[in-house]
Amino acid sequence: MEKLYGLSHLFMTVFLHNFAIFMVVPAITDVTMAALCPGQDECSIAIYLTGFQQAMIGVGTLVMMPLLGNLSDKYGRKAILTVPMILTIIPTGILAYNRTKKFFYVYYVFKILISMVCEGSVPCLALAYVADNIPESGRSTAFGIISGIGSAAFVCATLSARFLSTAQTFQVSTFIAVIGAVYMKLFLPDSVIDDRHLYTPIISQQKPTVSSVDAKLERNKHLLKALRSFKDLTSFLTSSFTITQAAIVAFFSNLADVGLHGSMLYFLKAQFHFDKNQFADLMVISGISGTVSQLLVMPILAPILGEARLLSIGLFFHCVHMFLYSIAWSSLVPYASAMFSILFVFSQPCIRSIVSKQVGPHEQGKAQGCISGICSVAHIVSPLVFSPLTALFLSEKAPFNFPGFSIMCIGFASNVRFFERRQS
Question: What letter would DSSP give residue 200?
Fold first, then answer.
């Protein structure tokens, strides 16, 4: 427990970053629809542009996540964490300034380019930071707590968005993102694995000597090695059967998550005419359930059931959750379905904990980066499959009357379980 208290600055950094990111989620659908299809509740071009954005982000993060993980193993978690903490300020800042059609497209381009580098990097590096400081026996609990911190930020952010105007939502989000970057630089100590493997600084203030030139050549060799991210990804994924299984589960779980994120809000807007405030209410229910589960329930169940059983439970209820969304016959059903997050939020912390235990202390960044890279493949595949399906079944050209058909398919995709009950 004392070691967890030592991570307080990391927890605050993760909280502020997630607060800024999640605050704009309830509003972005309305902003997109207003910019592209003003006055309409159905807009195929908005669905396709969202899908294209997700696919392009997936392509970028597939390359960047293993690279950033490798670089953090060499140069330190804090040095690499600085990049996404600063860059993610830009897209929300654009919409904080103006949300007309022209500015929306500027935001759209910057969002894609920056997210190709930064998407998911803060959680990935935070998990590696935790693994540096927490022994194996406590990692599943620690990973659950850091996920719970993210969920708590999600709840606070969506509650704030619920009571702010759209313009104020983006302005406050930008301000919090700036505060998060400054807080991280001032208070977060870098993570040193042990005294024999201190991180190499990226920038040296000393004048070069013969030995420093040799050291610089050595750093360049490590940098070139880190740049071989795709080769690292494939070799890591085949290094053990357990890691291969984890990668498969992570892929299908994220395939479903990305598909649901790209489809659900448009489905609810078309089916029940939801707006920003109702999206926020729905997300608050889901976020509170997930926060309670990760901070209170998971630390109790993880030592008793083990990560593999918790993972199976999470995947099963994730499928049930999406199935209820897909057959929603009333606007109250999505609210009831959101409560299932108390049971399905176990999945990601369990996968990350299992992978973390398969590698040594000097490969935690690489391990988390490679799993994030596999999740990025889902960001590429999911929009190609589910965006056209969602647009089709929300249009008048649907082959049969089942608006939630794409969400049901997403739910079945989430329930792919390759994990054995017992870990070697």
Answer: P
Domain parsing of the chain, residue ranges: 1-191, 213-418
Tell which CATH classification among 1.20.1250.20, 1.10.10.10, 3.30.70.580, 3.40.50.410 matches the domain 213-418. 1.20.1250.20
Q: Rounded to a whole number, what is the distance in angstroms from the first to the last CA of the chain?
A: 27
By the 10 Å C-beta count (0-12 exposed, 13-18 middle, 19+ buried), 101 is classed as exposed
Instruction: Check whether 61 has a pLDDT greater than 70.
Output: yes
User: What is the phi/psi pair of residue 405, to 5°?
Assistant: -60, -40
The enclosing H or E element of 172 equals: helix 166-187
How far, in Å, CA of 270 to CA of 405, rounded?
A: 14
Q: Which residue, 313, 333, 315, is CA-closest to 324? A: 333
Output the pLDDT for position 240: 79
- DSSP, residue by residue, 253-294: HHHHHHHHHHHHHHHHHHHH---HHHHHHHHHHHHHHHHHII
At the topology level, CATH places domain 1-191 in Growth Hormone; Chain: A; (1.20.1250)
pLDDT tens for each residue of 17-48? 999 998 988 888 888 888 888 877 677 788 78
Burial class (CB in 10 A: 0-12, 13-18, 19+), 313: middle
Token pair, residue 57, equals 């982000």
Q: In this structure, which amino acid lies at residue 341?
A: S
- Crossing angle for the helix pair 241-272 and 364-393, to the nearest 10 degrees: 30
Rounded to an integer, what distance in angstroms lies between the CA atom of residue 381 and that of residue 404? 20
pTM: 0.69
pLDDT score of 107: 93
In angstroms, what CA-CA distances link 56 with 7, 60, 61, 119, 224?
33, 6, 9, 11, 25
